[in-house]
Amino acid sequence: MERALVTGGSRSIGRGIVQRLIEDGYEVVILDRVEPDPPLQTRWINVDLTDTDAIHAALDDVLKDGPITRVCHNVGHVKPALLDDTTLEDFDAVMGLNVKPVLTITKRLVEGMRAEGFGRIVSISSRAAMGKELRTAYAASKSAIHGMTRTWALELARDGVTVNAIGPGSISTPLWHAANPPEDPRTQKIIDGIPVGRLGTPDDIANGVSFFMDRRSGFVTGQVMYICGGFTVGSAAAGS
User: Fold this and answer.
1) Which of 30, 26, 24 is nearest to 1 (CA)?
2) Alpha helices, DSSP H only, in 37-80?
3) Alpha helix stretches (DSSP H) within 8-51
4) Is 226 annotated in the active site?
5) What is the mean pLDDT for each group of 10 consecutive residues in the chain (240 residues)?
6) Cβ–Cβ contacts within 10 Å for residue 64, how many?
7) CA distance 55 to 45
8) What secondary structure letter does DSSP report for 228?
9) Out of 44, 138, 152, 231, which one is annotated catalytic?
10) Which protein family is it in (predicted)?
11) CA 164, CA 166: separation in Å to the nearest integer?
């Protein structure tokens, strides 16, 4: 059975991704500080993804069983703040979880992908990379994901490895609702601006990940797929 690794796969969007990959027939490994509850048919490893040494130790363990040729970089967090209130400490914290593990893990897994002549790397970005108030650190981290995705797509194409990203729009998760309080008028404005008329779900994102992970998707690389209910299109039209 082919294996896939998902960071932050115990809850919310990550859990939806893991469930879909299990349905697709993969053996899934989760790296997360939180145990899946209720349990999933996966191998869960408790690891602090801001700790590079801990990441390497976890990967040393899972790679004993052979290469992992599919990875979804999902873990991340948001520290909403206006520019004037954004601290370097918060900026470093966001980059430390949202970006650094992507580099660390990919560098370890890509050797096995090259040996297999096949690999799928998918990162969860955000529509916020296109710009959003109160998201200096978060938008910067997701823009970094886009840059790495496009660069690695070029570098790894000849090795049979594709590299893509998904930019979720507004997805109904505890993280989204914490960052967008219901009493804030900007929250309702966001929801009203989604053309399909609803918030997204983790299953919507998982469907996109499933597509990118498929062996039949080998001609798609270096792309950012916005799964946003049409919000990205609507934002572009509103600004024209």
Assistant:
1) 26
2) 52-62
3) 12-23
4) no
5) 97 98 98 96 98 98 98 95 97 98 98 98 96 94 98 98 97 85 88 93 98 98 97 61
6) 7
7) 10
8) S
9) 138
10) Belongs to the short-chain dehydrogenases/reductases (SDR) family.
11) 7
